[in-house]
Amino acid sequence: MAELRQRKTELAEKSSVKEERKETEKPADGPLLVDSVDKWQKWRTRFFSGSIMIAGFFLILSLGHLALVAFIFAIQVATYSEIMTIAQEKLKNSKKADGESVLISRFLSWFYFFCTTYFVIGKIFLRFEDFFLNYSPVTAFLAKNHTFISFALYTLGFVGFVFSLKKGLYKKQFVQLAWTFVTLLFVVIQASFHIINIFEGLFWFFLPVALIACNDIWAYIVGFFIGKTPLISLSPKKTWEGFLGATIATWFFGFLFAYVSSQSSFLYCPRTELLSFTATCTPNPVFVQKYYDLPEFVVSLFSQLGIDKTAVLLYPAQLHVLNLATFASLIAPFGGFFASGFKRAFKIKDFGDSIPGHGGITDRMDCQIVMGMFSFVYISQFVKTAPTGVESILHNLWLLDDQSQLEVFDRLKAALSQKQIL
Fold first, then answer.
1. Element (H, E) at 149
2. What's the distance, CA 345 to chain centroid?
3. What is the per-residue pLDDT across 351-381, written as a single tens digit (0 to 9) for each?
């Protein structure tokens, strides 16, 4: 009898494993996504909501830099809210948690969000420090003491957290604190690199974001129609066919779209004044066409076809965008896989339901956050030119008080007069 019971248990476990595999794996004899009427309905829903998002994005883009900064901030708020809601549900379900503990935890999480946002975005806006120093005494005080104020706010939150600790909830509260800091790192700090890219020129924000959108769209389309080979167990609906097809599509899209965008001064000119922007500037060399010699085997092939061509005229930005497209296709999707693993860990389907067919804001921003940080690093390392000596000196000059500026002027005037330049 004991052997019979053991045999039944083994059979039940095997049956359970098979059922689980049916839920997570694709059928072996057909495409992964196109085999269900419900999937076609989801496809239509995703297409409709995706079209609205794209149209809305272009509308905000047309409004300029500050509108996009406000848009990024709104995305940060929504993403942070979705993730912290999951964390606070865990605390709320604790037996010893009362309404006051949950309320304090929620307040502290948003207080830390405010502190981090004030510090990070404030640092970014201090690129216009001369504006804040001269606008009013209040803005001058905030600009000069930005780092100290940020630290004071952080210290206030730290002390408040210690006072909020409650017997029986220590572990839960420290888990909440760790959750808060990790979320701030991934959402606020990493996403803020998009804001830096915006001020460097809309091109460096628009193209990376568009590359991720293009890759996501084509991965879904190719996987929907011909996807058969699962890519990664964390995200069973992703396929190798979709992954590779999207990579090729993103390369073509990036190369062609960079050619068009490189001709728009509205996109490539950096923002140098906070409250005004004129799309006139000396373009970065990457936005000036130059000839590139073709490889010998290509020249030989062309000559056999009767084509006499040894060089091609391109914008250097097109080649840079190919590098960005490669990252968007091969590495950025791991932001989505990371989010999938997170959702599986906490047994949730999506982070929210604010976007029909797509889930929550976080479900759409997981890859974009990774892409923004890489774009910043790439621009700083390979694209951005160092400021000229005059620009650097003038920037430091505006940081001085009025009396010091006059002293610099008098000394410079005297030196130039001695050289008989004046």
1. helix 146-164
2. 23
3. 888 888 778 888 888 899 999 999 999 999 9
